[in-house]
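Batch manifest line 436
LIGAND: HAX
JOB: complex structure
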Amino acid sequence: MILEDRIEANVSVWRERVARMIKEYGDFVISNVTVQQIYSGIRGVPIQVSDISFVDPDHGIRYRDYSINEILKLLPKAPGSKYPMVGGLYYLLMDNELPTLAKAKEVEEEWRKRATVPDYVFKIIDAFPDDGSAMAMLSAGVMAMSCDSKFVEAYHDQTVGKNDYWKSTLDDSIDLTARMPHIAAYIYNKKYRNNQQIDPDPKLDYAANFAHMIGKGDDPLYSELMRLFILLHADHENANVSAHTAHLVGSALSDIYLSCSAGLNGLAGPLHGLANQECCNWLLDLYHFYQGIPSKEQIEEYARKTLADGKVIPGYGHAVLRCTDPRFTAEMEFAKANFPEDELFRTAMAVFEVVPGILMETGKVKNPWPNVDALNGALQYHFGVTETDYYTVLFGLSRLLGITSHVVFARAVNKPIERPKAMTTRMLESMISEQN
Ligand code: HAX
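JOB STATUS: finished
ARTIFACT:
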């Protein structure tokens, strides 16, 4: 299998690099931790090495050191499409080589062979009420597949050593990512289309097949949006809530399904993946409140009221970024090129002109610029995917590509169980008083 061959070819180099780092520079100090950082979500403390992707605060995410613009240009495109094939993106995340179109297609072919979702997954999703949380359904469906895990089988097989655990983890990752579009579509159809399910179409590429399964197959532009959406949301280094959670769980040698289900639960939080739904709802409320595209003065009034109510303005700010998110820019360009007159998009653009200034005025927001969530919903809305409580599932579908790549890499280099240290307030106080 193409991904296994590539990783096999590189794994000894990766391991030697890690071993050399620890052996020769194990005592090298890269940062000190302050009291404030301990109390503030270990913000800014390096806790991972992430070669798969890196969030550059001033320029945004880089996958394997390529910027979003480079990735959009350099990855092979789906036939007849302006946007890269998801299979090529997965190849790049798993390795550090830009794939050819043939290689991207080979990954998608592997997914096609493994796309059958076990029936018990659908039964578990069916057990939820139709108005239940879409993310809870997704997480439960993913977690259930742990009973099929090839890693668990390998772990109990006395003949498989620790150095080979990555192979069965990769196998599980490909199975999981192959099944994700159908599981995500099943949830959409159960919740919003009276359970009218649509079978996968093996002739379609990964993104187009998902579009087809939620009933949007007739509009080729929606498939283009999903290719772009999946690419933009695939990874954001491995220290954010969802990726770090999945890594932490995986570090206990839990299988990929348990790890990814835990990561999805983190993604479901309003300060993380749920923000795209909150942002779209905020935009819609604003648009309806003023009965159309609001003026700058109206946006200002509305944004100030949001802040005065003690709420955040969703879609703005970021824990790491200190610039306009290039993923926001890529989505803006997509909308400008294809539906510049869409009223919700124009509302989002008007907000972009006003909100950063208001956030700057607060004097406390470190990054007043839009993140990717500021436009996600408006774009989905344009195509009639108006069910905002589903948007985080779209994010999860995409993000598992990055998360599974990180977990495979961690297994390949035998990263150990993660176990930071806690201390008591009394210990902290006495350390401080001893030094003062
Ligand atoms: N609106 C109002 N206040 C904001 C704000 C915003 N958009 N962004 C930050 N602030 C406030 C914070 O709440 C914090 O206030 P307090 O000191 O009173 O607690 C202060 O500004 C400093 O925060 P920060 O250091 O600039 O930002 P954080 O790293 O603490 O938080 C968040 C980063 C993304 C959570 C934050 O900017 C936020 O809540 N944004 C709105 C929600 C959002 O868009 N989330 C999606 C982020 C992208 C993502 O991860 N997607 O998955």
